[in-house]
């Protein structure tokens, strides 16, 4: 009970204009507590109440960034209107918060792909609450099999890094092999990827799936993490253009909608990437990519996003002006 109260206090502090010092003091206290215990606490996500480790940053992120990952319920709703047999794939599913958001927007099935053994028990438990989900317990990449990587855990996330001496091995699967085991998702029209620097590898692993199913794709472009993987910033976007994706919507790491552009507007894309090349802060883009088949979905969703941003900003200002 005390850890749930502390988690609630964390959220309350983020919503109050109490200053950076108070927040920093609480963060220090939280890190100290987690050294000794990291029990499960509860958090509302969309229509569902899920569990997560006390150390997980999700409650604070939702408080600080009210638009964080909130595109997904509305996007699922609009897609479901066009595709009544809609289903989704969530790569880098973590604790299942994305699946909860998607299923809050539309009553559809979601395949959750997650390879981190530390977080899998929370994911499994939460998906029992969320319902209509399947789990693929693996990391996704360009080759099947055990690979010389090590898992590095951070609060609320994990990333895999090359382990040249081969002392640690991590299971990696291609999208093709995952879909063989979960064939009901072979024509999924929504694909979300959040794999801490491996997003481009996942996209290339999924090239055949992208070519045939043509889902709306949401992926993360983090220059710092891509650099650690020696991966070019534009590799994912170039692949999507080759596969017939015509529209890109850019979001900052707080979930704020920035711009929608034609995928072939290379100069504009280069400007976005140049900004991140020069930016030394820990920021990144979330990018939504729409195939030319779904220009109508893009148009409806962009209208909705413009409205949503205005409404959320008004709500935020109202809270701060109380």
Can you characterise this structure?
- This protein has 322 residues and is an alpha/beta fold.
- It contains 13 helices and 15 strands.
- Helix 4 crosses helix 5 and helix 4 runs antiparallel to helix 13.
- The radius of gyration is 19 Å and the shape is globular.
- The mean pLDDT is 84.
What is the structural class? alpha/beta
Roughly what is the average pLDDT, rounded to an integer? 84
- Measured between the Cα atoms of the first and last residue, the distance is 29 Å
Uncertain residue ranges = none
Number of helices: 13
Content of β-strand: 15-25%
Helix content: 40-55%
The backbone outline, from C-alpha atoms, is globular
Q: C-alpha Rg, in Å?
A: 19 Å
The sequence of SSEs as H and E is HHEEHHEHEHEEEEEEHEHHEHHEEHEH
Biggest sheet: strands side by side, in what order? 5-4-3-11-12-15-13-14
Largest sheet: 8 strands, mixed
Beta strands, count: 15
């Amino acid at each position: 009970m005390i850890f749930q109260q502390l988690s609630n206090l964390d959220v309350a502090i983020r919503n109050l204009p109490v200053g950076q010092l108070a927040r920093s003091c609480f963060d220090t206290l939280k890190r100290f507590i987690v050294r000794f215990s990291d029990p499960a606490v509860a958090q509302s996500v969309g229509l569902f109440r899920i569990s997560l480790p006390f150390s997980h940053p999700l409650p604070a992120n939702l408080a600080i960034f009210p638009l964080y990952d909130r595109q997904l319920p509305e996007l699922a709703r609009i897609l479901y209107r066009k595709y009544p047999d809609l289903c989704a794939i969530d790569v880098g599913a973590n604790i299942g918060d994305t699946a909860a958001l998607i299923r809050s927007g539309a009553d559809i099935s979601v395949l959750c792909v997650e390879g981190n053994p530390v977080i899998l028990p929370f994911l499994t438990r939460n998906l029992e609450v969320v319902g209509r989900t399947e789990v693929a317990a693996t990391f996704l990449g360009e080759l099947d099999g055990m690979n010389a990587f090590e898992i590095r855990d951070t609060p609320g996330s994990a990333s895999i890094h090359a382990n040249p001496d081969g002392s640690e091995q991590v299971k990696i699967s291609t999208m093709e092999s995952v879909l063989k085991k979960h064939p009901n998702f072979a024509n999924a029209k929504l694909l979300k990827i959040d794999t801490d620097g491996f997003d481009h590898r996942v996209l290339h692993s999924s090239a055949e799936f992208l070519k045939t199913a043509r889902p709306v794709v949401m992926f993360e472009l983090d220059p710092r993490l891509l650099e650690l993987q020696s991966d070019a910033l534009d590799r994912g976007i170039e692949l999507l253009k080759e596969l017939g994706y015509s529209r890109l919507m850019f979001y900052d790491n707080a979930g704020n909608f920035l711009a929608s552009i034609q995928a072939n507007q290379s100069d504009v894309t280069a400007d976005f990437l140049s900004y991140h090349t020069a930016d030394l802060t820990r920021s990144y883009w979330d990018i939504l990519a729409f195939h030319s088949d779904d220009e109508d979905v893009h148009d409806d969703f962009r209208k909705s996003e413009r409205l949503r941003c205005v409404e959320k900003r008004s709500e935020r200002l109202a809270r701060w002006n109380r």
